[in-house]
Amino acid sequence: MQLNTSNPIETMTHNQIKKTPPKFKKIAPALAAASCSLLGITEAIAQENNGDWKFDVANLIYAESDSRVAATEPVFNATKTYVDGEILNVKLVFDSLTGASPNGATPSDTAQTFTRPSGNGEYTVDQDENPLDDTFRDSRGALSGNWTAPINRDWEYTLGAYGSKEFDYLSLGLNGGLKRYLNQKNTALNFGLALSADTIEPVGGKPLGLSRMAIPGSGTFDADFDASRADSSDNKSIIDALFGVTQVINANTIMQFNYGLSLSNGYLNDPYKILSVIDTTTGANYGGNYQNAGNNVYLYESRPDSRMKHTLYWQTKYALDNGDVIDGSYRFMIDDWGINSHTLDFRYRWDLGNSYLEPHLRYYMQSKADFYQRYLTSDEFTSGSIKEASSDERLSDMNAYTVGLKYGYKLSNDKEINVRAEYYMQTHSGDTGFGKLTSQDLYPDINAIIFQVGYSF
Amino acid sequence: MKLKYIGQIVCCLAIALSLSACSNLGVKPWERDTLSRPEMQLIHDPVEAGLDDHIYFSKEASSGGRGFGGGGCGCN
């Protein structure tokens, strides 16, 4: 995946050093150099003004415990800053994912057999085990480019394009932004717009929402599998708008406030997620898997075909007199799926001269989507009363914590090597079921490590 | 939830501060040496920020905030 993280809203302080109206083109380098030396700004920044490239390479490893998802993600990022203040950025990201991912079914007191998403073959999960699909494997390449340039001394624009390809997913996007400086450039107003057109081609075709998973080994498997599928592909469009204010508070403090609106339309399901149907009949199987003709019933998930999200974001950076920097942010998100979330993020950059240490703490909590259900009851299944349902743990009531530490070492003015290690934990909660289901762990925690090495030159 | 309301209050204060105090806040151009330090940029390490956004987009129901929330991935 990569998110399109290009942000039209960057602090103006760095850019304004570089931004100069065209008519002052010839004296700009001299003035910039003079200002930089007066202000004690490093030679590296002065060189950037002459049109130097700056490169960042990094590799991230993300690994969950219990043989779940593991990802390796190398990144190559190149930025060129021109004399007139234009900035060109090109970024290349690769992703390689392996491991097992929850398929959404509940654990059971008996072994469970599932059809693979492709329809070719099956896999069996032992009793009392969280059902994981061990065929989860993907790789992705993403390329993005952004161009930022001043229009005049008060205005600046950004244009960008983005494309990424996975085995079953294609995303193409465009974005643009405008920035207006006010109040001696102590205030910047920002507006950004991003459009994305995504195409998904699920392995085995697109499942019909709440259709039944074909029974492995059944004599009518082929016909049942075809009946559970609609087209081979579908689309999703996303429109993002971002409004922001960046304000210099004083010589040591800068603050940003953003409002974001995001509209998604189209196919928003996860085609590989299913739900268990749990038996409500009084008797020995109360709370067990509901069976039809002797076979467990599993249904493909079904989500709404649109989503509107509102995001408020506040960030403040404060430089202490000893050179340390405090970075704090808060984000509130609310959407029309019934989810709202709070994210607190805190970093303290401890300046050690040629190196630094940066502890990082993050706390995230979200409420569940209205249509989130850990399972469907047999009553809901037989009555057909449920039209939308997903047991995707990412839509459940959740708390998540990140604790990390980063170390950076400056090899020279414009070369830095850094490494970070973080621990990420997710806990989920919700309906704990009834009957036999109550003895199962329906909400296992996720524990992951994040390790990154980076080099800038 | 209490936290929800605290968050909304914090955001409202931030808006009020941003909009009402713009004319009184700020520094002169020659006072920007600290603010011009690379580590004082709001997104100091865009590569790390992009990688983090990718992780959390893939594992949680929220995205965006400091930048576009967007799509670009089949992981969510």
Account of the 3D structure:
- The complex is a heterodimer of chains A (457) and B (76).
- Chain A is built from five helices and 25 strands.
- Chain A has helices spanning 12-18, 28-39, 43-49, 221-227, 378-383, and strands at residues 53-64, 70-81, 87-98, 101-102, 112-115, 122-125, 132-133, 138-150, 155-166, 169-182, 187-200, 234-250, 253-266, 274-278, 291-292, 295-296, 298-300, 306-319, 325-335, 340-351, 355-366, 376-377, 397-412, 415-429, 446-456.
- Chain A has a 16-stranded antiparallel barrel with strand order 1-2-3-8-9-10-11-12-13-18-19-20-21-23-24-25.
- Chain B is an all-alpha fold and 76 residues long.
- Chain B is built from two helices and no strands.
- Chain B has helices at 2-20, 46-59.
- Chain B starts with a helix and ends in a 17-residue tail after the last helix.
- The mean pLDDT of chain B is 79.
- Classes of the chains: A mainly beta (457), B mainly alpha (76).
- Chains A and B meet through helix 1, strand 1, strand 2, strand 8 and strand 9 of A and helix 1 and helix 2 of B.
